[in-house]
């Protein structure tokens, strides 16, 4: 999997779908071969990935990440397979556990037993993708269907989870194809995330998991200004307990210290630290999307792949 770059709709876009497809096509023309879409309330990341994958043949598209709550795995399976067929095999499904504070604000409810729900969600997805059938009754989720649950061209679907805690990593290693942590630094990858998920995968007889490390990035001539921009953009994550824990595990006080900032060579060198720590893949998450910023990151991504 080549170096990835997040693509976001521009705030002033007249049509979000047209705008993101145009950005994805421009990234592909610039040499980027993998783009990722974050899930907010809108647009629907899985559906948008299918539209992009169909419009830009050969471009890898993925979600990073779609929270499993309040989505039922039967619905996720249907969406993912439709997108995989549209993308002709170039789609990757990235899932997340969500954050209770965000869920409560948006839906008025936060789903309990997060790790158990993740286990059951992944079990159902694997059953569908691997057998084409489902008859599962869990503690948190059940899924039964007497109708077809797979479609031509829709499988296989690689599944990754934004797992960073020990329990979630073990479930992910057992049932998914890898993890895609955000704001987990090189030390945390090397000393904790990679050993934990790899051990779980080995015990389950699964292939070695992919470790897709995502980091905030900004190409900027003024490092102090870049750090100020990063501090503003990353403040949201510093208030979420799961990110607080992973930043503390790295031995840092601020998420800014995990970002790839500065001139192109400095950004590339920072991302190389993640690869040297054992990440199999990296994703650049742009801190700004103004004209020129994305193009600069696309060039960095292409140069990382060339080394």
Could you explain how this protein is built, in words?
This protein has 307 residues and is an alpha/beta fold. It has one domain: Luciferase-like domain (TIM Barrel, Alpha-Beta Barrel). It contains eleven helices and twelve strands. The strands form two sheets. An eight-stranded parallel barrel has the order 1-2-3-5-8-9-10-12, surrounded by seven helices. Strand 2 (34-37), helix 2 (45-55) and strand 3 (60-63) form a beta-alpha-beta unit. Helix 3 (73-86) crosses helix 5.
The SSE string, one letter per element, is EHEHEEHEHHEEEHEHEHHEHEH
Summing up helix and strand content along with how strands pair, one would put the structural category as: alpha/beta
The CATH first-level class comes to: Alpha Beta
The fraction of residues assigned to DSSP E strands is: 15-25%
Which CATH architecture would you pick? Answer: Alpha-Beta Barrel
Q: How is the biggest beta sheet arranged?
A: 8 strands, parallel, barrel
In order across it, which strands form the biggest sheet?
1-2-3-5-8-9-10-12
Provide the low-confidence segments as ranges. none
Question: What is the arithmetic mean of pLDDT?
Answer: 96
Count up the helices: 11
Q: What would the principal axes of the Cα set say about the shape?
A: globular
Helix percent reads 40-55%
A few lines on this structure:
Helix content is 47%, strand content 16%. By secondary structure, it is α/β, with parallel strands linked by helices.
